Amino acid sequence: MDGPLESENSDILLKSELIEILRNSKSIEGPTTKYILNTTVLTEGKLLKRERIGQKKDKPRKIILMVGETGTGKSTLINAMINYSMGVRWEHKMWLEVTEIPEDQTESQTKAVTVYEVNALDSPFDLTVIDTPGFGDTEVFDKDKRVSEALQQLFKSEDGIREIHAVCLVLNATDVRLHERQRYILDEILSLFGKDIEKHILLLFTHQEKKNLPKRIMNFLKESFTKYVKNDENVCFLFDNCQSEYSDEEDRDTYKTSWDNGVENFSKFFDHLNNINPKSLHITEVVLRARKQLDASVGNLRDRIELAELKKKELEQTKTALDTLENYKKEQNNFQYEVDEPYKEAVPINAPWWKWSKRATRCEVCKENCHYPGCWWVRDLSWCSVMEEGKCTVCTGRCDYTKHVKDSNIYVPKTRKVTKTKYDLKKKYEEDVGEKRSLMIKLEKDIQQIEAEKIRLVEECYQCFDKLMETALKSTSISSFIHIDFIIEKVKETGNQERVQKLEELKKRAIEENRGLVEGIYIYTQMMI
């Protein structure tokens, strides 16, 4: 093969391991040869895939997570990082890519969370790069929820990632201002992590040619970003993302400065990374799980409260019927009354076009929806976000995952008109042994039990929400805020004024922190319900 693989066509020799990698990769010839690396695919799914570059060696490993808005140049930056770690320099007249970068980058090129295990040739440590789809894509907001689903899958899998060295937030230096779109994206990114990750967040600015921090970036850090991450040790690295742009021989020299700056900046970045101790992802995994359980619990709670209220209505109709009897202990064989009897029916999901989730996990024993919307990526239901140790954390019976199904149906509470007789009353409410109780007293007891069950359900939902508020790095993001009105309403019904006040204060703080986004929040809320 002609080109950079031959030593006479390169100013410096390539390492034999890299030559072998390049021989098995797709090449696009030119003054600068582009190689699309043929990675070893370890696992591949709809939400998550893992790939390996090079042969695994006995070296320390650093793990970084790359997150950012669509269009920041995150994919190009990852490619540049891989070029540096594999020892590629300007003199080699080549450029490596793990994925081809098309000219139109208005939409995220990364559709799944991708883990690259880079067995570096020119670094004291190997590198694991977790690449996430760009936030705030031209698709709807609901797509961003897939990232948290995939990360939870990655963190909790048997061979998953348990610790991380840095969360790298990629920002475009030419658009560093906290406008409403960027605030939404920043909120959603930070809301994925636990509070203990705060000091492990690094800022990587792309499209920045100057070596020193320009004034606009300094202002962004001082006036905006520190409101989100209370870290006095914000570490910034600047990259210009130009190394891959040249194509003509006469243009090569003009990009040498860009290459030299890139090597210098990556050297600083890798030196800093080398001195970072890993941080456990336990709390972050708790946050991701709590966020999924909150969504599932609120959806399940809405259905169960609706059904409880329907049952209460049926009992009150029965009580009213009894009130009409002058003496219900006498034989009145012709006594009949009509009630609205509640029941549940599995019906096809009729989701609007923007919903990415058209499937639900539901319990066939409890006849409840345990995870909807948001359940579509798992094949084995024991991996569903609401399952812990094989048991459901949402349905009434906490049933085993084997009692659940995942399909395109959901349970919907309904009522039907039913005519009942005095025999039905006696069969349901009179005991066969001991002293017979008044039917009226038993009815009132059932109504009280339903109210107690509603209070218990609200308590479960509140505890899940409270856990998220305590552990999440960004607790007042849109994805948390969408449930707060519903929770406040139900807590008010329980009469716990202290909790109501706490939630109202949280809502007030969320509105203040998301000023300018309130309209978008309520639009998003309606989309999620």
TrEMBL record:
Record domain AIG1-type G: where: 59-291
Residues making up the signal peptide according to the UniProt record: none
Keywords for the protein's UniProt record, in alphabetical order: Coiled coil, Nucleotide-binding
Coiled-coil region(s): 291-328, 426-460
UniProt key word Transcription: no
PROSITE patterns cross-referenced by the UniProt entry: G_AIG1, SIGMA54_INTERACT_1
Keyword Nucleotide-binding: yes
Similarity remark: Belongs to the TRAFAC class TrmE-Era-EngA-EngB-Septin-like GTPase superfamily. AIG1/Toc34/Toc159-like paraseptin GTPase family. IAN subfamily.
Annotated protein name in UniProt: AIG1-type G domain-containing protein
Species this chain originates from: Culter alburnus
